[in-house]
Amino acid sequence: MTSVTGLLDLRRTVPQKYIPVMVTAGLFVAMFVAGGIRYEGFATGQIVLNVFIDNAFLLVVAVGMTFVILTGGIDLSVGSVVGLSTMVSASLLKDGWPAFGVMALVLVIGAVLGLGMGAIIHYFEIQPFIVTLAGMFLARGLCYTISTDSIPIENATFTAIAQTRVDLGGDMWVSPSVLIALVVVLAAAYVLHYTRLGRNVYATGGSEQSALLMGLPVARTKIAVYTVSGFCSALGGLLFAFYSLSGYGLSAVGMELDAIAAVVIGGTLLTGGSGYLLGTVLGVLVLGLIQTIISFEGTLSSWWTKIFIGLLLFAFILLQRLITARRR
Amino acid sequence: MAAPAPILRMSGIGKQFPGVKALDDVDFRLLPGEVHALMGENGAGKSTLIKVLTGVYDIDAGEIELEGRRVAFSSPLAAQQAGISTVYQEVNLCANLSVAENIFIGREPRRLGRIQWKKMRRRAEEILSRLDLDLDVSAPLSSYSLAIQQMVAIARAVDIDAKVLILDEPTSSLDAGEVAQLFRVMRRLKEQGIAILFVSHFLDQIYEISDRMTILRNGTLVGEYLTSELSQVELVGKMIGRELADLEKLEDRPPAREGAPLVETELLGRTGAIEPFTLTIHEGEVVGLAGLLGSGRTEIARLLFGADHAGTGALKIDGQAVSLRTPRSAVARKIAFCSENRRAEGLIPDLTVRENIILALQAARGWTRPIPRRRQDELVEKYISALNIRPANPEQLVRNLSGGNQQKVLLARWLILEPRLLILDEPTRGIDVGAKAEIQRLVAELSDGGMAVLFISAELEEVLRLSHKVGVLRDRRLVAELDNDEGLTTDRLTETIASGAIS
Question: Which positions carry the signal peptide feature in this UniProt record (chain B) (predicted)?
Fold first, then answer.
């Protein structure tokens, strides 16, 4: 009862639009504190940093997904594109390609795939769900044409990036991937808030019809968000390759669902037009912290992660429903 | 006054659609600093003229001159850039964005590609204050009423250096206070020399705000008049091309026949929607419901149609207690409901007139027993001619019909079921004088034929003209039930609504 009245008070003092993000932030802090009380050695900064290290690729993928969902769309292809990126990297590196050439090519492939799907969605007026579902099968299928087995990565640059520790002082460290992910987050937040493209993303998600009548470039915006998402998936794939130092056709199966879950738990409306990138970051952190807690618990199987994510999703969708219902 | 040179001149405009001549040799001019009303029935060509002007349609004949230069716009955006902005009935803004953003999106002040939020908010405040509006420009648009949203749309329109502002039925969903506010804004703009083209179905509003009017009928020009020199009766005569005989015939409405009670409610109510009310509707009786928007008129209709469940009280039909669990059970008891929101809740725009009309009958029969095509054609033919649906083509898509004709299609759908109680929620909103008169006449005829009608309308004159009995609603409560005798006037109704008691 007190929590309900607490929420009502909150509504009076902070703008409604920040409530979902604040709820997610509150949840993260509560989980961290609860974990710290329950488990020894949990309440350290490195635990949070480890969540970043283990989920840097998911964070990047979720940033791209945030763009798409803000326009009211969805991108189911991201997991497959991550998988494809690891495969392309691993196989080209094995053939002796230079590391940076491989990285550039992978990013271009991801962006082009996204661009193609965006163009089909816009110009043929097909639901994003169907188009990106097709993209998902396509990318996953391409993985197996490269190889059905796992290909190890032994390239010097890749292994160097994978093994580098960036010290933050006080025995705390992060991987270069975390820094890349944070740069992506900051750049994306800037784009969403301070550029026309970003505002057009929100406007398109609010009402595509109105955006069109206001003379906004809806076509360009919609195609751009899928391109961004494709690019982010490819970059996420590179980070995943740094993390696992191998390419495998079955890697990142279902990651699209984790990314969507992170975005929704971060308070972005699936119908589009409302949400913040900070929420997505918090969403990824919450998902990562659940995994950490379950590994600390020791006795629970890792499938409990899925159960908790499922329950959280239900709770957050209900919360969104309540907030949008109030608004009407 | 010496007329200044027109800022906009359209001459000899012609526009042809397959099978219809929408505009034929129409001239139109707009002077700076005037409010010019474009008048005509639904289907007279008002919308087409506006769409031709703003580049939604190409023109087939004639030419358009803006400030003396010949123009042809390829899209609304091109028209906007040339200084012709349009604000539609539905607010075409993004409610999730802030007020300031809605005014500036697409033209945000930037430096090195970075949007300057502070500058944007300051300029938004300036623009709004010029329109006498004091809003929190960083609040989301959705936190303001529809009227305010409309004025934000106008602010957006005039900020694009507008010379011509087109307001296409901006007032149809506003209440009196909001209309007054809109008119203040319009007068402000007029003083600044902007030419305003105004379309509305409310004659009183036209006379209050407009300086001049152009009348269209069946796609042709009837004439251009100074508002001060044309009486309302003359105007309506010119619009519909015949005398007001139809409307006047209704004035001598026969008294209600002594029918048996058809529907009786006893303290029927639903928490949060309508306080318990007791109301009896007799056969052949027209019961009007008067009250402000949101006073509970539609809620009563929804209870009687089974669209909502009653929380308290009892409902009797033919003296027998029933509980209407779904609209289906109401239809089975011969109750029909024409929703106020005909686009969202009634018609299916992508089906043809025939398919829309036949829908309720088919649903009542069940899908396993399709209505034979010949029977469909007969029925549809009959109702198209009885209700004078235009164009009289059963295979026309409903989306292509004007508002008044769409309303008639919806009516036909329910009349085919031969209901005993017909609930009409705002059947005449947003439709023109001629169609209005036809629908009113139809209601009178139906009730003469023994059908009971529950008639809901925001226009008190209309309620008075048609009803035998008027229920007055206020704050979700049925506050009075008045017999429509000599003593009942719109003034008394207004008073009752305002005071909440029988005066």
Answer: none
**Is residue B146 within 8 angstroms of chain A, CB to CB?**
no
- Give the other-Cβ count within 10 Å of A203's Cβ: 29
* Residue A92 counted as domain residue: yes
* Least confident segment among A209-218, B250-259, B401-410: B250-259
In a domain, A6, yes or no: no
Distance from the Cα of A244 to chain B's closest Cα (Å) equals: 38
User: Is the model's pLDDT at A97 over the cut of 60?
Assistant: yes
CATH number of this structure's domain B249-499: 3.40.50.300
Which residue in chain A is spatially nearest to B115 when comparing CA positions? A194
The pLDDT score that the predictor gives to residue A57 is 95
The Cα of A208 is separated from the nearest Cα of chain B by a number of Å equal to 9
Give me the architecture of the B8-242 domain, per CATH.
3-Layer(aba) Sandwich (3.40)
A202, A210, A273 ranked by CB distance to B92: nearest: A210
Identify the bridge partners of residue A152 per DSSP, sorted by sequence position: A246
CB pairs under 8 A between A and B: 61
In chain A, the number of structural domains is 1
Tokens standing for residue A112: 């082009």
The amino acid sitting at B470 is V
Phi, psi at B315, each rounded to 5°: -125, 130
Determine whether the interchain pair A206/B97 forms a contact, defined as Cβ–Cβ distance below 8 Å. yes
Nearest CB to A194 within list B80, B95, B115: B115
Q: CATH number, domain at A99?
A: 1.10.3470
Residue B109 burial by CB count (10 A; 0-12/13-18/19+): exposed, middle or buried? middle
Residue A4 lies in a domain: no
**What are the sequence ranges of the domains in chain B?**
8-242, 249-499
Question: What is the Rg, in whole angstroms, of the alpha carbon atoms belonging to chain B?
Answer: 25
Residue-wise pLDDT tens digits, B375-395: 888 889 988 888 888 788 888
B308-351 pLDDT, tens per residue? 888 888 889 888 888 888 888 888 888 988 887 766 667 888 88
A215 neighbourhood in chain B, CB within 8 Å: 76-77, 80, 106
The pTM of the full predicted model, rounded to 2 decimals, is: 0.72
> With contacts defined as CB-CB under 8 Å, which chain A residues touch B101?
199, 203
Residue A306 lies in a domain: yes
Cβ contacts (< 8 Å) between B97 and chain A: which residues? 199, 202-203, 206
Nearest chain A Cα distance for residue B22, angstroms: 24
- Expressed as residue numbers, the domain containing A205 is 17-30+44-327
Q: Determine if the peptide bond prior to B391 is cis (ω within 30°).
A: yes
Q: Which of B3, B161, B6 minimizes the C-alpha distance to B68?
A: B6
Tell me the C-alpha distance between B352 and B393, whole Å. 9
% pLDDT > 90, chain B = 14
Considering only A36-40, A104-108, A132-136, B292-296, which range has the smallest mean pLDDT?
B292-296
Interchain proximity B97–A203, CB inside 8 Å? yes
| Closest-CA distance of chain A to residue B366, Å | 32
Instruction: Identify all chain B residues contacting A203, using CB atoms and an 8 Å cutoff.
Output: 94, 97, 101, 105
